[in-house]
Amino acid sequence: MDLASFVTDSGSIFRDFNSNFMMNRDDSGPSCRGTLWTGIAHAFTATIGSGILALPWCMGQLGWILGPFVLVSFAAITYYTAIHLCDCYRTPDPVNGRRNYNYMGAVRALLGPRNVLICGIIQYSNLWGSMIGYTITTVISMAALKRSISCFHEKGRSARCDVSANKYMLLYGAFEVILSQCPNLEKAAFLSVVAAVTSLLYSFIVIGLSTAKLISSHFDFKGSLMVAHQSSMDMDMPSSTKIWHVFQAFGNLAFAFNYTTLLLEIQVYAQPVFAVHERWLGSTWPTSFLNRIHTIKITFIHNFTIHFTPGRLLLRSIFVTFTTLVAMIFPFFNAVLGFIGALSFWPLTVYFPLTMYTVQANIKRGSSTWIVFQVLGLVSMVVTLIAAVGSIADILENSKHAKLFHIDQL
């Protein structure tokens, strides 16, 4: 299901809401079975994901002037580069050319194998980092529910409610090990609907709670107009830490506008990582015991048969376990999201899409469009660098006070 399937050569959405006429133009690859509505569902899920959870903190660091300005700027840059990336869905002609089945496929067709290697390292690192971020996010939410239901509800809001989140991290990791064994998520379309509904639901919950808080405080707006050095921050905090937090806020905002998991092909976090390794193992040792499909019949359940591949069972379990352990070692939500956003924003969101479009549309060096691309790329690279510096500095600072595999008060 390709979001780019709903985009014409100018990047506009097809007028027919249920248009599937491109199904017969899919070359030799998998057909496009999506509709406009499934594309919208995935777009909502991607943009209203865990990234928005850090936005209030970002506004607190950047202030009421710079914060909204940076937020709108990231949205505008993302929209602008996404339109140009959609024009690279087919090459060499954006309308009648051969379809590129994923982001790296477009990079391979337009920029060559060397750029594919660089793009692959960055993209898969971004996907893995997103998995760590979602693991931390889920555990934070579980711990918050535990505090609210079992402690605050019984002892009051002023009670000290320390929650050790290790067990929640392990429980979530075990659940993910089971889910990771699903062979194919392409036919589980209901997951996209559920994800979109829940994303919108918790967004409206946050809006409702924030509005209620604002009304109860008689519209007493908190924070400051300027950045973190004002009274919105703890005055005892070192100036260097405040600066790192401002830099890190740029990374968190960049993470909130990460659309490269949607275009040109939806990349469901661990699934592309699994596919690459399993494809390599299957081609390297095709007759190995680990790569053969084995069957187990459950006799006491009528006509119930389990088909599994030992290699996939081991590989996916080890990968999920390792990801969970890393999340336990670095449970720093804001810093991790900031680093992921910094890692992916300039190369994946700006550089590769604009560079591919330059080749696709044969943009001449020195033209006005080329100059705009260069300026946008330079600004985005600077943002990526300062966001990475701020996030790494915060991770190192938090690591000084953290205990290995000991997560308190998430």
TrEMBL record:
Its main location: membrane. The chain crosses the membrane at residues 36-55, 62-82, 188-209, 313-333, 339-359, 371-393. GO terms for cellular component: membrane. Pfam families: Aa_trans. It is found in: Membrane. It comes from the Eukaryota. Keywords: Amino-acid transport, Membrane, Transmembrane, Transmembrane helix, Transport. Residues 34-267 form the Amino acid transporter transmembrane domain. InterPro entries: AA_transpt_TM. GO terms for biological process: amino acid transport. This is Amino acid transporter transmembrane domain-containing protein.
